[in-house]
Give the backbone structure.
Amino acid sequence: MDEQTKGNILVIGNSGVGKSTLINAVLGEKAAYTAWGGDMGTYELHRYEGKNLPFDLIDTIGFSPENERKTIKEIRSWLKKEYMGKTVSDGINVVWFCVDGTSGKLFANTLECFAKSVSDWKSIPVIIVITKSYSVPDREQNIRMIHDILSRQKKLKLNVQKVIPVVSEPFFITESTFAPAEGITELIEYTNALMPEGKKAASEDIGRHIRKKRSMQAQALVGGYVAAAVAVAAVPIPFPDHFLLIPLETAMINGIANHYGVKKNSGYEQALKYLLELGAVTAAAKAALEALKAVPGLTLGAVTINAIVAGSIVAGLGEACIGIFELVSKGEKTLEDSNFGWIKDMVEQNISVKKILQIAEKINITKKKGNKDIADEINSEFQ
């Protein structure tokens, strides 16, 4: 089996539900440790190679009342470290959410723990595996119970594709009466059938994670320029004539473009010029300053107001550029033509006099007027 074509199956559920026993049954060997009477011995996440299977299996720490938060955090951290942000061929392709068939219950809290653990993999298909399904009549009841609770927990938006009851190993009632192992072949076959959908979903989820991470890094870059803009503008000079922001804005725009891999061609140079015209020291700044003068009870001095307006406009321009260059990097927009109406729309959505007024009013209430406080308030409002 070509390792690059193999999928990854996440096996998750409560402690003692039978995850490790299920993994051993699927692998056909005693690979995962199981404690006597169940799989209470899974203390850390572990990846098992499916040597003769089209996928590998990831065994997880089971949920229990005393360690729910810790377990959720460890599962999410491990998955991010192992799979997120690598390549679109990596990732979790199918999830087996294991439910104990002997309990006859699936608590909403367990479902919520599961949803939180896989929240970074929203698109991945889920198979709910009813383990220890020894009683045929109970299987039908358990399937109905699961569908019922899913219908009442639609807000979790779990991509459940099928419910499959299994018996991972023969369960002896007497020496001659036992429930045979079953359901494993169906689980493997159905999982394999879901693999193309699962790989596409993994690609989407990893792409979303990469975009989110890239956006956060770009926002951190903008945050630095906002702080610089606040410091530059916090001087007793009339802000509309304060052209010292232009070099800051130019460096910020170039930095964001580099971050998204945007080519510096003639189209980019035109866009840069247009962005600078839309940005700092023109109509937006004057409109904000006039609006601030009309706010009743505003006791901020001219220096503080200069800093708020300058930082807010740089922040808005930066957020607009993040959106603009992300669209360009994805091939959804181009800078090759001079029709920049969409760029104007994005800048105007982010450079808002209303938002500048909100920031000024918050600072007026908190009375925190230091440059760092002003920059922090602006960044928190825009990001």
About this structure: The CA atoms of residues 320 and 347 lie 5 Å apart.
